[in-house]
Amino acid sequence: MTTRIALVGGTGRLGTIIRTVIDELDGFEVVRVLDSSSDLAEIEGADLVVDASTPQISIDVVRAALERGINVLVATSGWSEERISMIRPLVDTAQSGAVFIPNFSLGSVLGSVLAAAAAPFFGSAEIVEAHHEAKIDSPSGTAVRTAELIAAARAEQGPVSAPHVDQRARGQQVGGVPIHSLRRPGVIAKQEVILSGPGESLTFTHDTVDPASAYAPGIRLAIPFAAEATGVVVGLENMIDIGIRS
């Protein structure tokens, strides 16, 4: 049996990569490709909706899928835990699955999870993320997810030390963790998580050099997972055996 996929944002950068991967997967077929001008009713009849649209319309895509009882894989950035919480009741009502993947790169996911694992041992944590100048949201979904993981990992210790957060140059706080966003040409995606304590610091750095090569393994994992998922699942770390779960 073939799983029929409606791909929203299928003509964009990430959407094009996702479609290429799906075309190589046995048992999965893209039957609809939607762009920003498409009527979301076109997802009718799909078994899975994959959302690679924009932060502005992503929530409409997710709602349209769940209202029709269709599982949805969200690859669009901008989904914080606060925003996801608005979708949870709809997921429960639909008895469907909504899978949110802030980053398909295995290296990026490992860097974020390992940083979160180390965070309880350091009093200070800050994130610096850089993306190409065309990225329309900041901070990135990856940085938001990393900050949320760090905050959760430090539940017993409390928030990290982040002095002078009233100053705009100190970055945007997510879960108490300052995030600094750079948007510039000559870079695809880069994230640094800097943990500091008395007399030392530990930095986790991840660079995306070739998105197609970096994202393909994660997409291969996420597509079949999302097709069978129930409830809300956040993060690719839930699909790989690294011994740490969010």
| Beta-strand residue percentage | 25-35%
**Number of helix segments?**
6
The total beta strand count reads 11
The secondary structure category is alpha/beta
| Helix/strand order, N-terminal first | EHEEHEHEHEHEEEEHE
Specify the biggest β-sheet.
6 strands, parallel
User: In total, how many domains does the architecture comprise?
Assistant: 2
CATH superfamily assignment of the largest domain? NAD(P)-binding Rossmann-like Domain
Shape annotation: globular
Proportion in helices: 25-40%
Instruction: Please mark out the parts with pLDDT under 50 across 5 or more consecutive residues, or reply none.
Output: none
Strand order of the largest sheet: 2-1-3-4-5-11
Mean pLDDT: 95
CATH architecture of the largest domain: 3-Layer(aba) Sandwich
**What do we call the CATH topology of the largest domain?**
Rossmann fold
The CATH class designation of the largest domain is Alpha Beta
What does this structure look like?
By secondary structure, this protein is α/β, with parallel strands linked by helices. It has 6 helices and 11 strands. The protein has helices spanning 13-23, 55-67, 81-94, 106-118, 141-153, 211-228; strands spanning 3-8, 28-34, 48-51, 71-74, 97-100, 124-131, 172-174, 177-183, 189-197, 200-208, 231-234. Strands 2-1-3-4-5-11 form a 6-stranded parallel beta sheet, sandwiched between helices. Helix 2 runs parallel beside helix 3 and helix 4 (106-118) packs parallel to helix 5 (141-153). The longest helix is centred in the last third of the chain and has 18 residues, at 211-228. The radius of gyration is 18 Å and the shape is globular. The chain starts with a strand and ends in a 12-residue tail after the last strand. The mean pLDDT is 95.
